[in-house]
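Section: Multi-chain targets

For targets with more than one molecule, the full set of components is provided together so that the structure can be written out for the assembly as a whole rather than chain by chain. Components appear in the order listed by the source. The example entry contains two components.
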Amino acid sequence: MAIPLQYNLRNLLVRRTATLMTAGGIALVVAILVLTLALASGFRQALVVTGSPDNVIITRSGSNSEVLSGMNRETARIIESMPEVARLANGQAFAAAEIVVVTNLPRRNDPVGSSNVTVRGADARALLLRPMVRLVAGRLYHLGVPEVIVGRPLSQRFAGCGLGETVRFGSREWKVVGVFEADGSGFESEIWGDGEILGPAFNRVGYSSLTLRLADPSSGLESLVKRVEADPRLHIDARHEDDYYRAQSEMLANVIRALGFFLVAIMAVGAVFGALNTMYAAVGARAKEIGTMLALGFRPQSILLSFLIESVLLCLVGGVLGCLLALPIHGVTTGTTNWSSFSEVAFKFRITPGILLTGLLASIVLGIIGGYFPARNAARRTVAEALRES
Amino acid sequence: MTGPIIRLEGVTKVYRRGSVDVPVLQRLDLEVARGEFLALMGPSGSGKSTILNLVSGIDTPTDGRVIVAGIDLGDLDASALAEFRSRHIGFIFQSYNLIPVLTAYQNVELPLLLTDLTRKERREHVLAAMAVVALTDRLDHYPRQLSGGQEQRVAIARAIVTDPTLFVADEPTGDLDAQSATEVLHLLQRLHTEFGKSIVMVTHDPHAAERADRILHLEKGVLVESVERKRP
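Its structure, encoded as tokens over all components, is:
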């Protein structure tokens, strides 16, 4: 039978300074791990929720992002006329041909700082395709007028992007007439205006992409792709909008995770040494107790398990502390340049139950690594040896 | 079961200190009868504690046989020796060796965790053992909250709680004041006379040794004197 858990719990409590110091080291590692994962998860989530599985996005063949894509108006018209495209009540195709460009804007409260921002030229159908986009202040831009609406995070982070302010890009000035939200999606990091005015401002005559709603969401994409492939005039890629944005997030999310794991791995080495040190000290100080328990008939495996459990408990305390330390960052907005669109994406740190569980599991793994060798050391002692050491 | 509780046949024990062999016991033959209270005396390094370690299965001889309760300990592997100790040996150490982070109750319960007893049965055994040492009012006390004498009595309760075949006591009164030592010796004598338990006790104290049925004197690993004592 195992040595009672109370033995380990009480020992951790009695050596509370060493316990807290070691747990503190583990807590930092877990906090960094949780924050890194929350950063990657928030970024990914912002882009994934940007796309709807009901929509299909069409870009030039081989281009990985709307910014790099281009198509002429004829192409857009051909696709809009295809039977797989849903129709609005007025008979128009349920589709929006859009111009997507990147412009550099100065940051608010930072005269020398600037960042790239995505500007989307669209008509009213764009809003119908993305019902999550809703105005929270002001009004929608008028067609044919140099007016724009701005995602809420952008309005706060960039100079001239506040409601009623004027922002200069594309060789002219634009009045900000509305601020919108889009459920935390990537659209919130964009400026939207009338494509017919935005295009000439950026010397664009065609479109960047076409987004459409399928008449039959279940098999429509397959049929559309077949029709496109059969048409020699078209050199385009068609994919579900959510798949497109997921792919957009992939590279940077992976880089964030990889860098995060690298940082965590380095810190974890230090933390494991902390745990090793604490547990070796515990084993050394408790030679008499180990000897006594072996003398009473507890087997070496029970001693090993007991010290291993103690190490895991010690690190789990650190894991819980680390999660608590990271938790207040949940929901905090930050921004980074999306490597696919070369423009800034604002997003929120997103700490999910899965991420917290990963943090706790990491602390358990650190506990096992940090506790195994001291525990094995404790279990390998002979009774006489352990009693003599006391 | 009849026959001696302990039989040592030609037992030699040599410790190795670096490259030097240090002989501690030399071809020792010894028999201890069932129910006998044996005291081992002698100067430091004479081999008293080594005998205790050998008969309790926490050390192995370099040569010879150690048979306790009819079991040849040389036939047992580490796991079987652990099982042997938990079933047959009650340890009483000079410095009590209580687990400081466990209460008196939990310390006494510790060896019972190696049995199949239920929690309720374990509680009954612990209370009975604590009653024998007259410490039922100290169940929830931690060792640091007890006097030395009380700690040793808790240790005795821990030794008797599994009703072992043999008690081994290594200087049980070595760390105690005179009154506490008397109480502990009285307890050991009760275990011997009332419960008929076999006891092997190592001591430097002649007064403590007087409680035993027989006193063996060792010097340099050899028995030099055996004194039989008459019980009144």
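The interface with chain B takes residues 1-4, 6-7, 10-11, 13-14, 288-289, 291-300, 382-384, 387, 390 of chain A (CB under 8 Å).
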